[in-house]
């Protein structure tokens, strides 16, 4: 299986989930500024939406949308604690978190901060929105190890990936101690360290190729 991935992209969550499950994915890095693959071809020919993640399945199907890809991967491993069985309330709780992270935190909150075209007045509104969501998240994390309790789930991979964008945007998390502890806990998982190392290596390769200094 092949994962179409971006350095610092939300596709990191899928890579983490795959590594948790012991699924060896081939990674194809997408240049999202140019929307091209390493051979220079147009990424839209793989995903007409032009977004990552996308997973190329063994039967040739292409699956997009991170929260769906992570569910598909987990469902290849029935009984794995990363996603409770279909039909159970525990599974709906995981999906409830996934929706919040994808819609509110990612698209509603961080996306305007990434866009160069966001007017400064709206940037301030988006930053306030992110802060309010993270403050709520911090509160939720006061009494639990992972989002839905004792087990690391696909929602944690997703939440970690998006919440770590605070570092990209210089958002100070010191006022949210439960969130900080949660991110440190997840960041220490071997799956996360490996997925982040792969992205960092690719980031360094890209910067070297483009003649940019490696920070
Ligand atoms: N709804 C999609 C959104 C994915 C998404 O926005 N990915 C970003 C990277 S984090 C992207 O590909 N952005 C490029 C673009 O929107 O053109 C999902 O949740 O998988």
Structure description:
This protein is an alpha+beta fold and 215 residues long. It folds into two domains: 2-80 and 195-209, 3-Layer(aba) Sandwich (Glutaredoxin); 89-190, Glutathione S-transferase Yfyf (Class Pi), Chain A, domain 2 (Up-down Bundle). It is built from eight helices and four strands; from the N terminus they run βαβββααααααα. The chain has helices at 12-21, 66-75, 89-114, 120-140, 154-163, 165-168, 177-187, 190-209; strands spanning 2-5, 26-29, 54-56, 62-64. A four-stranded mixed beta sheet has the order 2-1-3-4, with helices on one face. A hairpin with a 5-residue loop joins β3 and β4 (62-64). It is globular, with a radius of gyration of 17 Å. The two termini are 32 Å apart. The model has no long low-confidence stretch (mean pLDDT 96). Glutathione is lined by residues 6, 9-10, 32, 50-53, 65-66, 102.
Reconstruct the topology from this structure.
Layout lengths: L1 E4 L6 H10 L4 E4 L24 E3 L5 E3 L1 H10 L13 H26 L5 H21 L13 H10 L1 H4 L8 H11 L2 H20 L6
Helix pairs in contact: 1-2, 1-5, 1-8, 3-4, 3-5, 4-7, 5-7
Glutathione (GSH) binds next to loops.
How would you classify the helix and strand content by structural class? alpha+beta
Highest CATH level, the class of the largest domain? Mainly Alpha
Compute the average pLDDT: 96
* Discrete helix count: 8
Indicate the overall shape: globular
User: How would you characterize the largest beta sheet?
Assistant: 4 strands, mixed
Question: Any low-confidence stretches, pLDDT <50, length ≥5?
Answer: none
Fraction in beta strands: 5-15%
From the N-terminal CA to the C-terminal CA, the straight-line distance is: 32 Å
Into how many domains do the coordinates divide? 2
* Percent in helix: 40-55%
Rg value:
17 Å
Q: What is the CATH fold-level name of the largest domain?
A: Glutathione S-transferase Yfyf (Class Pi), Chain A, domain 2
Number of strands: 4
What spatial order of strands do you see in the largest sheet? Answer: 2-1-3-4
């Amino acid at each position: 299986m092949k994962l179409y991935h971006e350095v610092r992209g939300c596709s990191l969550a899928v890579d983490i989930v795959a590594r948790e499950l012991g699924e060896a994915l081939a990674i194809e890095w997408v240049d999202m500024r140019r929307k091209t693959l390493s051979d220079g071809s147009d990424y839209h020919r793989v995903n007409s939406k032009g977004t990552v993640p996308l997973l190329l399945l063994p039967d040739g199907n292409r699956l997009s949308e991170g929260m769906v890809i992570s569910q598909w991967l987990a469902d290849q491993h029935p009984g794995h604690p990363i996603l409770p069985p279909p039909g159970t309330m525990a599974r709906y709780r995981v999906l409830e978190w996934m929706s919040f992270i994808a819609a509110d935190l990612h698209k509603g909150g961080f996306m305007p901060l990434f866009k160069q075209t966001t007017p400064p007045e709206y940037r301030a509104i988006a930053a306030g929105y992110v802060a309010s969501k993270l403050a709520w998240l911090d509160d939720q994390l006061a009494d639990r190890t992972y989002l839905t309790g004792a087990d690391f789930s696909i929602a944690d991979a997703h939440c970690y990936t998006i919440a770590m964008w605070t570092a990209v945007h210089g958002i100070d998390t010191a006022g949210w101690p439960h969130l900080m502890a949660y991110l440190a806990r997840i960041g220490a998982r071997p799956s996360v360290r490996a997925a982040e190392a792969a992205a960092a290596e690719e980031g360094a390769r890209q910067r070297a190729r483009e003649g940019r200094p490696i920070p």
